[in-house]
Design brief:
The complex is a heterodimer of chains A (218) and B (376). Chain A is an all-alpha fold and 218 residues long. Chain A has helices at residues 3-18, 24-53, 55-77, 81-110, 112-124, 139-157, 162-174, 189-201, and strands at 129-131, 135-137. Chain A is 72% helix and 3% strand. A two-stranded antiparallel ribbon of chain A has the order 1-2. In chain A, helix 1 packs across helix 2 (24-53) and helix 5 (112-124) runs antiparallel to helix 6 (139-157). Chain B contains 14 helices and three strands. In chain B, helix 4 (75-87) runs antiparallel to helix 6, helix 8 runs antiparallel to helix 14 and helix 10 packs across helix 12. The relative contact order of chain B is 0.18. Classes of the chains: A mainly alpha (218), B mainly alpha (376). Chains A and B meet through helix 1, helix 2, helix 3, helix 4 and helix 5 of A and helix 1, helix 3, helix 6, helix 9 and helix 11 of B.
């Protein structure tokens, strides 16, 4: 089996969007958005599927990372440099493991994109697209920025989209437990309040951590 | 981070990607075809008589790559390279055109940039999410980014269209051998000693925390954050929550450069080198490594792919990359389910043997012209 067969299969699913209007420019724009949206939705659903298939594994490696990081923060608070170095090095090993497992997870949200680009070349490879100052460009030049924008807008809409809202919540529930400690947690309650007040007033540039890690994709 | 800043960052990313997207400048491939005058059915990248890449084989190999990513980690990128070079036969195909031909070099560059698309995009996306979640040590991030941009631009600029498959194989092999030796060192008593000591110290501290029933005490506002005590071009001494640390400020710039250059040359993401670098050499806390490495991986990868594809018009076979990504996904599902049946030590020895075999084969094939391990 070669790529050609895949593109022939994809053709009727993709090309209709490019033919929605008589205007070639508008049709091509609608088509690009359609291909990007299909790639985004399939990718996000696949990523969720892969995550839940191995949810125990992701929970374990995440917990390992968070627990050792928290221990390292506590060691720093106790000014125990040896313990800090030890816990931090183990936390970093756990982070490495987590990082590579997530790389494979993110691949599940991206696999549709190369097929989309390949199909665009199959369909429009012989069309000359001209961009001012750059000259002739291929369909991928136009598709990739559109895909990134669509995916970004989709990530903003996710908390309100029925299926994706549930996925988000389930990922959160799966990785629930001790939260990753911030270094501000080392401060006394009073100092912490003072720090937060200063931060809110914008007088103090935070040198520490602002947000908690989000385990799922963008 | 404010929403408006996030949007700006996203727009900047889109602008950056505009540069890395492939323009229709197929002149380089067309020139190579015109020079080599290959004949036959269009195959790999539409080259007449080029190998008919079977995406099922690509898919099956990628399952193995995904399995490695989810069980061992970094070695997955190397195996993706082995797939392009050996499993799909692109290495032999490039070699068949002779060392000095354009076709040899264009296929070699295509292998490099395909590896980077395959591993780098997922690494960058993963890093970006860590960046959103974690913190960025801005000066260190900038130092790494300067090094990364320099390295990932210089290597394609200097080597694209100039490196023959044999030379690439030789260097790729040397790197795999080095990785194999490093993996082996980790299994030796000396390599294990450091890890064991860290484990014991962590356990002892955990025990003391449990006994004392408190979380390491509190610090006052005066001690919090980073306080620089001394800063020269070669020494930066600072206290972090009252604990003293020091590092050489030149290290991140040089490290960022070397890692990005190596990643770009070999066609890998670079995250596997950056994460241990930031933790062992720069001694950063884990929470800060996430955000800081993100910036360097993202910038290095975008820059490298843009340099290969836009500046040097290197083409890739998109269908193959898509099939490989599907394989990686399946491998990553199977990985955690099967790896629990294989002890960590056995897994490590398997990869040492594999790294030594692949390393020896590629190094000798690249530099001597024949392999000293079978098949010769």
């Amino acid at each position: 089996m070669t790529g050609q067969i895949v593109y022939e299969f994809l053709d009727p699913w993709m090309i209709w969007a490019f033919r929605t209007t008589g205007n070639a420019y508008v049709g091509f724009t609608i088509g690009l958005i359609w291909v990007s949206l299909v790639a985004t939705v399939i990718g996000e659903l696949c990523m969720a599927g892969v995550y839940f298939t191995n949810k125990k594994h992701f929970r374990t490696i995440n917990r390992d990372m968070v627990d050792h990081h928290n221990l390292s923060v506590k060691a720093l608070g106790a000014k125990n440099k040896t313990a800090w170095k030890a816990c931090n090095s183990i936390a970093n090993d756990a982070f490495g493991k987590n990082f590579f497992a997530r790389i494979a997870l993110f691949a599940s949200s991206l696999w549709v994109v190369p097929f989309g680009i390949g199909w665009l070349f199959y369909r429009f490879g012989h069309v000359d697209f001209t961009v001012p100052y750059l000259g002739l460009v291929g369909p991928a030049f136009l598709f990739i920025p559109v895909y990134i924008l669509v995916r970004y807008l989709f990530s903003l809409a996710k908390p309100w989209l029925p299926v994706f809202k549930t996925i988000r919540q389930k990922v959160k529930d799966n990785e629930a437990g001790d939260e990753m400690l911030e270094f501000t947690d080392l401060l006394s309650e009073e100092d912490r309040k003072e720090y937060m007040r200063k931060k809110e007033r914008g007088r103090h540039k935070p040198g520490l951590i602002e947000s908690k890690p989000v385990p799922e994709g963008s | 981070m404010l929403r408006s800043k996030k949007t700006l960052l996203m727009l900047a990313l889109v602008a950056a990607v505009c540069l890395m997207a492939q323009p229709a400048l197929a002149d380089r491939l067309a020139d190579a075809i015109a020079e080599a005058k290959p004949t036959g059915e269009p195959g790999y990248m539409g080259i007449p008589g080029g190998p008919q890449l079977n995406i099922i084989i690509g898919f099956l190999w990628a399952i193995w790559v995904g399995w490695i990513f989810s069980t061992v980690g970094a070695f997955g990128g190397i195996m993706a390279g082995v797939g392009h070079i050996t499993i799909y036969g692109l290495g032999d195909y490039a070699s068949s055109f002779g060392k000095g031909s354009k076709m040899n070099k264009v296929v070699t560059d295509s292998i490099r940039v395909s590896n980077q698309w395959l591993v780098g995009c997922s690494a960058a996306l993963s890093s970006f999410n860590y960046y959103k979640a974690g913190r960025l040590v801005l000066p260190l991030g900038i130092a790494l980014a300067i090094g990364s941009v320099a390295g990932s631009w210089l290597v394609p600029w200097l080597t694209a269209g100039k490196i023959s498959l044999k030379a690439y194989l030789g260097y790729f092999g040397l790197f795999v051998l080095f990785l194999g030796c490093y993996l082996f060192y980790q299994t030796t008593p000396k390599g294990q000693a450091g890890k064991q000591a860290a484990k014991k110290a962590a356990e002892a501290f955990q025990k003391s925390v449990k006994e004392q029933q408190h979380g390491g005490g509190t610090v006052d506002m005066a001690e919090m954050g980073v306080k620089v005590q001394k800063f020269t071009p070669t020494i930066c001494e600072f206290t972090f929550f009252g604990v003293e640390f020091k590092f050489n400020p030149l290290i991140p710039v040089v490290g960022g450069f070397c890692i990005a250059a190596l990643a770009s040359f070999l066609g890998v993401g670079g995250g596997f080198l950056l994460v241990p670098f930031l933790t062992s050499v720069a001694g950063l806390p884990m929470y800060l490594v996430a955000g800081t490495s993100a910036l360097a991986v993202l910038i290095g990868m975008v820059n490298s792919i843009a340099s290969y594809m836009l500046l040097k018009q290197t083409p890739v076979a998109w269908g193959l990359i898509g099939a490989e990504l599907v394989g990686i996904v399946i491998g990553s599902i199977v990985g955690p389910k099967t790896s629990k049946f294989i002890p960590d030590k056995v897994l490590k020895y398997i990869f040492i043997v594999l790294a030594v075999y692949v390393g020896l084969r590629y190094t000798t094939k690249g530099f001597l012209g024949y392999s000293i391990v079978p098949p010769f």
